[in-house]
Design brief:
- The complex is a heterotrimer of chains A (about 325), B (about 525) and C (about 375).
- Chain A has about 325 residues and is mostly helical.
- Chain A has one domain: ABC transporter involved in vitamin B12 uptake, BtuC, CATH 1.10.3470.10.
- Chain A contains 16 helices and two strands.
- Chain B is an alpha/beta fold.
- Chain B has three domains: about 250 residues, Rossmann fold, CATH 3.40.50; about 170 residues, Rossmann fold (3-Layer(aba) Sandwich); about 80 residues, no CATH class.
- In chain B, about 30% of the residues lie in helices and about 25% in strands.
- Chain B has 17 helices and 22 strands.
- The longest helix of chain B is centred in the middle third of the chain and has 16 residues.
- The N terminus of chain B is likely disordered.
- Chain C has one domain: ABC transporter involved in vitamin B12 uptake, BtuC.
- In chain C, about 70% of the residues lie in helices and about 0% in strands.
- Chain C contains 15 helices and no strands.
- In chain C, helix 4 packs parallel to helix 7 and helix 6 packs antiparallel against helix 11.
- Chain C is globular and about 70 Å long.
- The chains are: A mainly alpha (about 325), B alpha/beta (about 525), C mainly alpha (about 375).
- At the A-C interface, helix 5, helix 12, helix 15 and helix 16 of A face helix 6, helix 7, helix 12 and helix 15 of C.
Chain lengths: ~325, ~525, ~375
């Protein structure tokens, strides 16, 4: 980062750059969680899904270009696709298990975190060392400014743009399509949906799988865009924070977008300050997203009333 | 006039005036078993075109099973559904819709978070994926303009009043162009005036030859005012059919119950000296969603008195009871018991001998996976002889449970059986045993204590409550069953919109005025 | 309360988890086979390196000690209907508090200078250790009590908040050992100063197992008595089963929630103290060893029964301790253990849906007594 030349201006610029770079995983995972929760189930296991996505995307990107003779431009995209498919597999397990009688979806989520991270670390072990081709980014900065710092800040990944488009698309899906209305019906009033002849199990199965697909893509962003490597510490709880983020966004995809940008920004405070030489409280600043999530939950939840916008069948999330 | 074929085309404007005569529906020798239980035993029913037909029977007589077989929710073990004399296989509600049959359920089936328009569009059985809202809204507005009653199209259903929700359920069937309407106790959440309005408008449609109606009802008043014919079920068997204008209420009741029954004599001991036990002072409480449900009510219940509170459900009575039971915190005002402020802590409950019979006992007063014995000990487990210091004495808990199981005739395999495994009536008995067995009861709060129970059980609970009253207990009885209140109460109040709208001693209570107050005028 | 109908329930409660464990072993074998390893060799190695001989078994017991305690951090609140997974955070906070107290009592300062380091105070070792234990118990307890309070007063989902608290606890630890309580002499890993040898937690006679195992077993037994045999436990189980029923009975649900959460956190805090005082001697990143997360699994497999927690902790402790051998002898990644844990967790959850499905465990139906005397017409 070129913060040295900018002095104190590096801090807001660093946060801006961090927001543009770091919010995409939040965005994908929270949209995935939003879809899942709209159907009336919680998937806490998206943390595990995210790791599976990150690992499989990185592995495929590497294998594609090194072993299978793909071009380094194409193999990361195959990685993204496989990450989504890996996510769907995780989603299937979650959807099937959490819909068994007497099985609690939160507990399944915890199990999926352990299982997902276990499998990801197990299979990902050989890929920690090698360098995989990364996804390209769009150099938006060159259009506006010659400042190298600004240019590097305005490097934008196409995946982020897809995520940006996805939020209004999902909003439209919930409001103006029959399948979208069915999802809301299943999540808000399963009895009513049943009376309409909708299969609650099927709708939830599809929503959880689709949501996990998005989370898998979010994982691909982590390993192929930013931070752009595969290590066992690549996810810092984005999958968990997504659950709180969806509450904060009141189960609205558009607000998920704003919330993701906000969290991406919060996450970059620590590194931005460190870049201008402020080391004090580095770990605490890095924990800012967790503090923030907790604070938001404390402020938005209330024992006196149910949250507005909460899907009716989602009993366990807010009280 | 369009014919039946046009009805299956998606997106055609439903026009009530174009509807042809409803088909004839017959059920022939239908039998349905659930395991060893025979829910329906060789039952037949004939719904003639353009008639208003009532299906009568006590709880558990098989009425719901019968209509669910017609709708395709259940597959009957034997018997046929005939439509215009042809046997048709109905495997799902979608099939039923194909033959023009639609059902309005006892519980609302609209999605609260969605608007009226979204609910109506969603209810249509077509496969159009993307919704053109402009076009749909035009159609819906045109449909509403011709409908017998109106509901605001763009309001979320959750914000509608109960009466409007029920109207929406019926509108939904008209919108789907159902020509046979099956109504499952559609007026249980409506005021008498709302019920009359809704049924009256449907009656007009029937008289005009546009609809046939099969209604499940318990209310003879509705049957005599609106229905043409009745079919009666008793314990899963066909008990008879008849034309309403040829039958008296007594005859219908006899068909339902099998024999005449004298209403139980209510004997009340007068209490010359009464003291106030429960006082509510400007009590406020909120609903779950934070909206105020109880708007500052004042009430005093004296010893040896049953005060009845009538009202349509959803008018604040549930919240009121929950505050008194300690399940909900009040947002303003005060509860006073025996002259002292009362917050329903365990100590206050013990000192004042307060007991509660809440509605839905399994949900409100029992721990389903804990044993019958443990549930019976809920009020006493921390006092000698059931506890010694901080330790539980299991033998004492078990002895008391065995005792109560015998006294209150709770049917359970053993005191250790989880209470959730018992039948509804026996769960109720368990709670009754716990709440009424104490030697000293000072205040009893009961909410719909007899909901969903059979006559024998209702008589039993009524006698227990009266017994308590005659011993000098102050009783607050909240119920949606007006007959129950009129039978038991010494004084009756009506709650409407979170305030008391009517109050009268039982001797001078005026039925019409009570109905008027319940309607919120 | 044991009766003729109860043995079936007991048999079911043992048979289903055992069956689930066996089934997850089969699944794990399949996974190993898919990865090109001989499942039988893997099983054999796990058995040998966990339970094969006394030396190996000591290693297993060493790892099971903190697991028993962290499992209670999930198992106790579960009886109240709360799903708390802040075990790791409470352990870290307990370890952190105990080292601060331990160093202060030993050297008079958390960051002793060279002179102070030479001069270990005359306070008896058992007093230092008791002080450390109390500090760990309080710190862990308060940490999870916060979660309980947020749940009760703000309706904040306890699972999510406790998980976030894990990250926060680790950040606080890193911040402290990276600065305010850093030992400048320790260059490899940012760490606190070390406890003097005299004030370490001793081993059980003739073993290399520290006294923490004894703590674990005793605390589990106490927890069992508390839940099953005291009025407090009865109240907690009632509130956990149905809050509305508890409120009708006037039970103080909020107080119960916070006390149970405190006790739960204090167990994990004690585990942190034992790890610091017996194993590591100081606080650094090594304290975050995953005992918290495995503890959640132990609690689930034990179906929140504290006595069962001790046995399950030994079983899973064995599997963890075999991780190293798997890595050395079969060249399997250290995440193998995590995969196995995940599989066990998933299968155990599935087995929840099996309760009541097997006829053999069902109570025989007893013929109903006659209807009540008040009934004149319709039998119930």
């Amino acid at each position: 980062m070129a913060a040295e030349t900018l002095g104190w201006w590096g801090v807001p610029l660093g946060i801006l750059a961090g927001t543009l770079r770091g919010s995409a995983p939040f965005l994908f995972v929270s949209l995935g969680e939003c879809l899942t929760e709209k159907s009336g189930k919680i998937n806490l296991g998206l943390e595990g899904t995210l790791l599976m996505g990150a690992m499989s995307a990185y592995a495929i990107s590497y294998l594609g270009s090194e072993k299978w003779g793909m071009t380094p431009a194409a193999s990361p995209w195959l990685g993204v696709l496989v990450a989504g498919i890996a996510g769907m597999a995780m989603g299937f397990i979650h959807a099937w298990l959490s819909q068994q009688p007497k099985v609690n979806d939160i507990a399944v989520g915890i199990a999926m975190i352990i299982f997902g991270s276990g499998v990801a670390f197990f299979l990902g072990k050989p890929f920690i060392q090698p360098q995989a081709p990364q996804l390209p980014s769009i150099e938006l900065g060159q259009l506006f400014s010659g400042l190298p710092a600004l240019q590097s800040a305005l490097k934008i990944s196409p995946l982020f743009l897809i995520g940006l488009a996805l939020a209004p698309l999902m909003n439209w899906f919930f409001n103006s399509t029959r399948p979208g209305l069915f999802v809301r019906a299943v999540g808000d009033s399963p009895d009513a949906a049943l009376a309409m002849g909708v299969s609650i199990k099927k709708v939830r199965m599809l929503c959880i799988i689709a949501g996990s697909f998005l989370a898998g893509i979010g994982g691909a962003y982590l390993s192929l865009v930013y931070p752009g490597s595969w290590t066992e510490r690549i996810s810092s709880g984005q999958g968990l924070m997504a659950v709180a983020l969806v509450i904060f966004a009141r189960w609205n995809p558009i607000q998920c977008l704003w919330a993701s940008l906000f969290f991406g920004g919060a996450q970059s405070i620590g590194p931005a300050l460190q870049a201008v030489g402020i080391d004090q409280g580095y770990y605490l600043f890095n924990a800012a997203p967790y503090f923030l999530t907790l604070l938001i939950m404390i402020l938005t939840c209330s024992p006196k009333k149910t949250l507005s916008g909460a899907p009716g069948a989602l009993g366990t999330i807010s009280g | 006039m369009t014919d039946v074929a046009s009805q299956t085309e998606p997106n055609t404007l439903p026009d009530l005036h174009t509807i042809t005569a409803p088909p004839e529906l017959e059920v022939v020798n239908m039998t349905k078993r659930f395991g060893s239980l025979v829910a329906l035993d060789n039952v037949s029913l004939h719904l003639k075109p353009a008639t208003f037909h009532a299906l009568l029977g006590e709880n558990g007589a098989g009425k719901s099973t019968l209509v669910k077989c017609i709708m395709g929710f259940y597959k009957p073990d034997h018997g046929d559904v005939l439509i215009n004399k042809h046997a048709q296989a109905i495997a799902s509600p979608r099939d039923a819709h194909k033959y023009g049959i639609g059902m309005v359920y006892q519980h609302f089936t609209s999605v609260p978070a969605m608007t009226v328009a979204e609910n109506l569009v969603l209810s249509r059985f077509d496969s159009q994926t993307v919704i053109n809202w402009k076009q749909e809204l035009d159609h819906l507005n045109a449909f509403m303009a011709n409908a017998p009653f109106k509901v605001p199209v763009e309001t979320p259903v959750g914000q509608l009043a109960a009466g409007e929700k029920q109207k929406l359920e019926i509108l939904k069937q008209l919108y789907l162009k159902s020509k046979i309407l099956i109504l499952d106790e559609p007026t249980s959440v409506l005021t008498p005036a709302e019920a009359d309005e809704v049924l009256g408008l449907i009656r007009e449609q029937v008289t005009d030859g546009k609809l046939s109606v099969l209604i499940i009802s318990h209310k003879f008043r509705e049957v005599t005012s609106f229905c043409d014919e009745i079919t009666v079920l008793r314990k899963g068997k066909y008990a008879g059919t008849g034309v309403v204008k040829d039958l008296s209420v007594a005859q219908m009741a006899e068909m339902m119950m099998g024999e005449k029954r004298e209403p139980q004599k209510v004997e009340k001991t007068p209490h010359p000296e009464v003291v106030p036990v429960l006082e509510l002072k400007d009590l406020h409480a909120n609903k779950d969603n934070g909206v105020e449900a109880v708007h500052g009510v004042n009430l005093t219940v004296h010893s040896g008195e049953i005060v009845g509170i009538a009202g349509i459900s959803g008018n604040g009575q549930r919240e009121l009871v929950e505050v008194l039971a300690g399940q909900r915190s009040l947002t303003g005002g005060q509860v006073v018991v025996n002259g002292k402020p009362y917050f329903a802590t365990r100590k206050e409950i013990d000192n004042n001998h307060v007991f509660v019979l809440p509605e839905e006992p399994l949900k409100n007063a029992c721990v389903a996976h804990m044993s019958v014995a443990e549930n019976l000990a809920l009020r006493t487990f921390d006092k000698p002889p059931q506890a010694k210091g901080a330790m539980l004495i299991f033998k004492a808990i078990r002895d008391m449970a065995t005792n109560l199981i015998n006294t209150f005739k709770i049917k359970t395999p053993s005191p250790e059986t989880p209470v959730g495994n018992l039948s509804g009536g026996n769960v109720q008995r368990t709670v009754l045993a716990r709440e009424l067995s104490s030697e000293k009861i000072n205040l009893l709060i009961a909410a719909n204590p007899c909901f969903g129970l059979d006559f024998a059980m209702v008589d039993y609970i009524h006698s227990q409550i009266l017994n308590a009253r005659n011993r000098g207990v102050a009783v607050l009885l909240v119920s949606e069953d007006l007959d129950e209140l009129l039978k038991l109460s010494d004084r009756i109040l009506v709650i409407s919109g979170g305030t008391f709208a009517y109050e009268s001693p039982i001797e001078t209570a005026d039925f019409a005025a009570i109905g008027h107050a319940m309607a919120g005028h | 309360m044991f009766s003729s109908t109860n043995w079936r329930k007991t048999a079911e409660a043992i048979a289903i988890p055992v069956g689930a464990l066996l089934f997850s072993l089969v699944l794990f074998g399949l996974f190993c086979a898919l990865c090109g390893k001989n499942p039988l060799a893997v099983y054999g190695l796990i058995y040998k390196s966990a339970f094969g001989n006394w030396r190996a078994f000591q290693g297993t017991l060493l790892r099971s000690a903190p697991l028993m305690l962290t499992a209670l951090c999930t198992a106790l609140p579960a009886r109240l209907g709360l799903m708390i997974i802040g075990n790791e955070g409470a352990l870290v906070m307990g370890g952190l508090a105990s080292i601060i107290v331990g160093l202060t009592l030993s050297f008079g300062s958390v960051t002793p200078n060279a002179a102070q380091l030479q001069q270990v105070s005359g306070i008896p070792s058992f007093v230092v250790l008791a002080g450390m234990a109390i500090a760990g118990i309080i710190a862990g307890g308060v940490w999870i009590a916060i979660v309980g309070a947020l749940r009760h007063y703000r309706a904040v989902n306890e699972t999510i908040s406790s998980l976030l608290m894990n990250y926060i606890a680790i950040a606080i630890m890193n911040q402290l050992v990276g600065g305010p309580i850093k030992d400048p002499g320790e260059t490899i890993k940012a760490s606190s100063f070390a406890l003097p040898e005299v004030n370490r937690l001793a081993n059980l006679p003739a073993t290399r197992i520290h006294f923490g195992l004894l703590y674990g077993i005793i605390v589990c037994i106490l927890a069992y008595i508390l839940i099953q045999h005291t009025t407090f436990g009865f109240a907690a189980r009632t509130a956990g089963g149905n809050v509305k029923a508890a409120r009708i009975a006037g039970l103080p649900v909020g107080k119960l929630t916070i006390i149970i959460c405190f006790l739960a956190g204090s167990c994990a805090g004690l585990a942190g103290m034992a790890e610091v005082a017996a194993v590591h001697g100081r606080v650094n990143e090594s304290l975050v060893a995953g005992y918290g997360y495995t503890g959640i699994l132990v609690a689930f497999v034990a179906r929140y029964n504290p006595i069962a927690c001790t046995l399950v902790a030994i079983l899973l402790g064995g599997i963890i301790s075999s991780g190293g051998a798997l890595q050395r002898n079969l060249e399997m990644p250290d995440a193998t253990v995590l995969v196995f844990q995940g599989l066990v967790f998933l299968v155990i959850l599935y087995s929840d849906s099996l309760y009541g499905r097997f006829k053999i465990f069902k109570e025989p139906v007893i013929t109903a007594p006659p209807p009540p005397s008040t009934s004149t017409t319709v039998p119930v």
